[in-house]
From TrEMBL:
Catalysed reaction equations from the record: L-histidinol phosphate + 2-oxoglutarate = 3-(imidazol-4-yl)-2-oxopropyl phosphate + L-glutamate
Protein name: Histidinol-phosphate aminotransferase
Keyword annotations: Amino-acid biosynthesis, Aminotransferase, Histidine biosynthesis, Pyridoxal phosphate, Transferase
EC number(s) on file: 2.6.1.9
Similarity-based family: Belongs to the class-II pyridoxal-phosphate-dependent aminotransferase family. Histidinol-phosphate aminotransferase subfamily.
GO molecular function, one term: histidinol-phosphate transaminase activity
Cofactor: pyridoxal 5'-phosphate
Length: 355
């Protein structure tokens, strides 16, 4: 491999190899997937497509999914863009709204894909240092030359930034695009989508991967002023404009339509989260106040790297980051009650051995 290609490959490897395994014996709490299956309506909608529809091209404008999303979040169809997972939507957004030569701002502790995309598209970036308690200092995002991107809730910290702070960032960046990545917003209080009508420079990116349990279908979307949506369509390409494949379109539309199932699984995951956090705290962990489907926790007496490896040996995968400042934290996805109980039992044993 010549130098150019080996550099390109090295630039783009955010996940550790071997941690995306599909072995059912493994308790997989490392990539924030939903532990429950998608709505039963998704299966029906996909089965219907399989009955003779696959020979047909999908709608190039994905009208029915865009309408359904627009209705769900309270905007109009021309304020919705669809992509192959929100990672693709984010990549298009970097290409459409951020420019080489103009530094963008994102938090020093955040989603690992941002620096990957910035390097890939040659966009310089400045890291905004998170506070000691991992909250984000809104004022340090003001006046960015190139634009702003931040997740809310942030990953991997799970912390939520109030809408008033997001609004202050929008007001103080009137000439650049501010992207709020809301991959985990359905587990939190309020979405920034309600600010879209007032701020033409706001792009909110969401996904069906977490709260709607469709990580395998790859459906992400962006919500913003029609001008921003048009810019994304221009990047995507002239034929597929808004669309994704037929199965993904049908499955995601069905998932949005089943509001009752969505509410039920979100409530269940939030209940499990509260109970899990409480027990972790009783065991001596410090846990950040999570508004996501994962928690970020550290234990004063035990190195997170040891716990991570010991859990892995027991067939339980959680996420550990070798990044200065968070090297002693574990990020743990919220699974089913049974999965969390199994993890808690293992942690209890491991902590007993050390004392
Ligand atoms: N943003 C954040 C903050 C994430 O954690 C993830 C998932 N790891 C994504 C975006 C991408 O999700 P997807 O491509 O599955 O929509």
């Amino acid at each position: 491999m010549n130098k150019f290609w080996s550099e390109m490959v090295n630039r783009t490897e955010p996940y550790l190899p071997g941690e995306q395994l599909n072995d059912p014996a493994i308790i997989k709490l490392n990539t924030n997937e939903n532990p429950y299956p998608p709505s039963p309506l998704v299966k029906e909608a996909i089965a219907e497509q399989l009955e003779g529809q696959l020979r047909l091209y999908p709608s190039p404008t994905a009208d029915s999914l865009r309408e359904t999303i627009a209705e769900t979040v309270g905007v109009s169809k021309d304020e919705v863009f669809i992509g192959n997972g929100s990672d693709e939507v984010l990549a298009f957004s970097f290409m459409a709204f951020f420019h080489p030569g103009k530094p963008i701002h994102f938090p020093s502790i955040t989603y690992s894909f941002y620096p990957v995309y910035a390097k890939l598209f040659n966009i310089p970036y400045e890291l905004v240092r998170v506070n000691e308690d991992f909250t984000l200092p809104a004022e340090l995002f003001f006046g960015s030359e190139g634009g702003v991107i931040l997740p809310n809730p942030n990953a991997p910290t799970s912390l939520y930034m109030e809408l008033s702070s997001i609004e202050s960032i929008l007001i103080n960046n009137p000439d650049t695009v501010v992207i709020i990545d809301e991959a985990y917003i359905d587990f939190a209080t309020v979405s920034a989508v309600e600010l879209v009508k007032s701020y033409e420079n706001l792009l909110v990116v969401q996904t069906t991967s977490k709260s709607r349990s469709l990580a395998g279908l790859r459906v992400g979307y962006a919500i913003g002023h029609p001008g921003l949506i048009k810019a994304l369509v221009r990047i995507k390409d002239s034929f597929n404009s808004y669309t994704i494949d037929r199965l993904a379109l049908a499955g995601a539309t069905a998932a949005f339509k089943d509001r009752a199932y969505f509410d039920k699984t979100i409530m269940k995951i939030k209940e499990t989260r509260s109970r899990f956090i409480e027990t972790l705290q009783e065991m001596g962990f410090h846990v950040l106040p999570s508004q996501a489907n994962f928690v970020f926790a550290t234990h004063a007496d035990r190195a997170a790297s040891d716990l991570y490896l010991q859990l892995k040996e027991e067939g339980i995968l959680v996420r550990h980051f070798n990044q200065p400042g968070i090297e002693n934290y574990l990020r743990i996805s919220i699974g089913t009650d049974e999965q969390m109980d199994c993890l808690l039992r293992k942690l209890e044993q491991l902590l007993m051995v050390s004392t």
